[in-house]
Amino acid sequence: METLEPIQQTLREIDKRVPYSLRAAFGLAHRPVALPSDDGDIASFVASFFQPQDDGPGPAETRGNDEEEEPRARAGLRMDWACYARDHDEDAHFGHGEAGVVGVADGVGGYRKRGVDAGAFSRGLMTAAFAEVCAAEPGTPVCPHTLLERAYEDTAASGAPGGSTAVILSLAPGGTDNTLRWAFIGDSAFAVFRGGRIVHRSRRQQKRFNHPLQLSAREGGVAKADVGEMAVREGDVVVVGTDGLFDNVFDGEIGVVVRMGTALGFSPKNMADVVAGVAYEMSRSNERDSPYSIDSRKHRGDRRHGGKPDDITVVVAFIVSAYS
């Protein structure tokens, strides 16, 4: 699937389909739901996904190879991806299944106060990146940093106003080079899960609290982009999103959705919808702690609780056999 078109679906619609078991388990205040007291099977099923997990590596770290990884690394892999995205506002995304590349971008909302279209730069970045991938010779490996740099240059040259954070990831389809590569700037982020455990998490870039690094014609290009790579395996799940996801949902909570979705046979679209729906409910909560509220208390010294209303874009990519 190749698309730049946002999926015509609102977060309110997705919200209605978030499993009530997850609402109850997360204690979401927006729509509190109790698990049936007489349905022990459901309660036990949900509780199983909240069992203590190995925390895995910290941000921007990955596990070393184990005995199982080397044999599995010989098989060619590809991305099976899908996205939840709103149909307006400041987020943008793209994906190209055959080239094995996905990206999200988030326009810096502060430009709205200046009467600027705060989504212009994010849309320009993703449109330019998608066009660049489509123009490449089929089978050409995609370097995320080079792609982000060219997309930035095209967008800045177009005169697009505003600024944007962005993240692009690529996986060379087929072959035996099963390496996930990335380039990002700001607080659009991603996490890689293996067996429901996080094995890599990008580290957000910001000047100070709630002021991420950005790409803009005024502030310059991709020199400060974080670039890296890691080996991936069949069965890994990559969750990519704007800060509307990662400011509202803890990594461990995303892991719960990944584990539950894997057990229930979710497709990438199912999983992206549910992750986005959970983020949406948490963004509307006035009681639960969120990553954003904890950081706000730490850096601003306020008493904030609850989530952060924001645009939410979620891309979920399953790493699967190239021959499936």
Automatic annotation (TrEMBL):
GO molecular function ontology, one term from the record: metal ion binding
Classification via InterPro entries: PPM-type-like_dom_sf, PPM-type_phosphatase-like_dom, PPTC7
Entry EC number(s): 3.1.3.16
Family assignment from sequence similarity: Belongs to the PP2C family.
Occurrences of domain PPM-type phosphatase (ranges): 74-319
Name of the gene encoding the protein in the UniProt record: LOC100821217
Record region (Disordered): 49-73, 287-308
Catalytic activity: O-phospho-L-seryl-[protein] + H2O = L-seryl-[protein] + phosphate; O-phospho-L-threonyl-[protein] + H2O = L-threonyl-[protein] + phosphate
Organism of provenance: Brachypodium distachyon (Purple false brome)
Co-factor(s): Mn(2+); Mg(2+)
Record field: compositional bias (Basic residues): 297-306
Keyword terms, alphabetized: Hydrolase, Magnesium, Manganese, Metal-binding, Protein phosphatase
Protein name per UniProt: Protein phosphatase
Stretches of the chain forming a coiled coil according to its record: none
